[in-house]
Amino acid sequence: MRYSKSVKNRIARVDGQLAGVVRMLEEQRGCADVVAQLSAVTHALDRTLGAIVSENLERCLEESGAPEDDMELKVKKMIELLMKTN
């Protein structure tokens, strides 16, 4: 599976945000600040997940090798998987 530069940049940004959270914990920053930063990380991850799915859904379905009549079931399973992440 190929991922766009945009998706890779999003992941790198999330990585930086998480490193920032670790620093905040080490510095014993206030709970509100830590929670706010974690909320930003969560939002960024959700947006990244959406970007990956929107860029690759068709390819994922094609690579699954499912016959046309099984595509609806595959789509439903992918939607269920996405719903579990939220």
Report on this model:
The protein is mostly helical. It has one domain (5-85): Metal-sensitive repressor, helix protomer (Methane Monooxygenase Hydroxylase, Chain G, domain 1, Up-down Bundle). 81% of the residues lie in helices and 0% in strands. It is built from three helices and no strands. The chain has helices spanning 5-26, 31-63, 71-85. Helix 1 runs antiparallel to helix 2.
Q: What is the gist of this entry?
A:
By secondary structure, the chain is mainly alpha-helical. It has helices spanning 5-26, 31-63, 71-85. Helix 1 (5-26) runs antiparallel to helix 2 (31-63).
Keywords:
single chain; 86 residues; mainly alpha; Methane Monooxygenase Hydroxylase, Chain G, domain 1; 3 helices; 0% strand; DNA-binding; metal ion binding; Metal_Tscrpt_repr; DNA binding; Metal_Tscrpt_repr_sf
